[in-house]
Design brief:
With 214 residues, the protein is α+β, with helices and mostly antiparallel strands. The protein folds into two domains: 2-73, Glutaredoxin, CATH 3.40.30.10; 84-211, Glutathione S-transferase Yfyf (Class Pi), Chain A, domain 2 (Up-down Bundle), CATH 1.20.1050.10. Helix content is 58%, strand content 8%. It has ten helices and four strands. A hairpin with a 2-residue loop joins strand 3 (52-55) and strand 4 (58-61). The protein is globular and about 45 Å long.
Length: 214
């Protein structure tokens, strides 16, 4: 049995959860916050980052690694194409969305979502990177109807959680959703993916976690 560790507000936790649900893998959830000093956490995630999973073989951390493990260990309901090039294109999109969109926009989250302040220098630097990276993303993404083509893949688990964060954070900071302004119509895409049972479960649990008193 897989145990998914982390918390339901985390976008990367929800990426792994989405994949588990889509692949119909039995799993339990364990509430763990980032930065834990407990040995039980550090033995599975040495930087105390979430998500991580506990497996019968041991702990495993880093979202992309966990996704690859799930795909290899549980081949039923595949979320990566068998063709080597098509599979690489899925992983290319995962890497691009995580590193060149979400990770860049993350520097805005303190002000966009948590009431903090981001310096004008940071805002300008992030805007410059995102303008460049979003234009590049348009060359990779397909939305036909899924990000990698006509089949739902692991890249969709990533896109569904991360693209809205990029859009919301840039709207909050710059007064415009940089994805939409660049012609990346992820709204129609997330509406489509949001109709899946797995997506509805992820969203419902995330909203419940946000509404739960501290």
């Amino acid at each position: 049995m897989i145990t998914l560790c982390g918390f339901a507000i985390s976008n990367y936790y929800n990426i792994v959860k989405h994949a588990l649900l889509e692949k119909e893998i039995a799993f339990t959830e364990e509430y763990v916050l980032t930065g834990s000093k407990e040995e039980a956490v550090l033995s599975a995630s040495p930087l105390a980052k979430v998500p991580f999973i506990r497996t019968p073989q041991g702990g495993l951390c880093e979202t992309a690694v966990i996704l690859d493990y799930l795909e290899a260990q549980y081949p039923a309901h595949p979320l990566v194409p068998q063709d080597a090039f098509a599979a690489a294109k899925v992983r290319e999109l995962i890497t691009f969305i995580n590193l060149h969109l979400e990770l860049v926009a993350r520097d805005l989250y303190g002000q966009a979502f948590f009431g903090g302040t981001v310096s004008d220098e940071t805002k300008a630097a992030v805007r410059k990177k995102l303008d460049k990276n979003i234009a590049a993303f348009k060359r990779l993404v397909q939305f036909s109807p899924y990000v990698a083509g006509d089949t739902f893949t692991l890249a969709d688990c990533v896109a569904f959680s991360n693209l809205p964060l990029v859009g919301m954070s840039t709207r909050a900071i710059y007064g415009e959703d940089l994805l939409l302004s660049a012609g990346v119509d992820y709204k129609a895409y997330t509406k489509l993916v949001g109709e899946r049972a797995s997506s509805q479960k992820v969203n419902a649990d995330r909203k419940a976690a946000i509404a739960k008193p501290a």
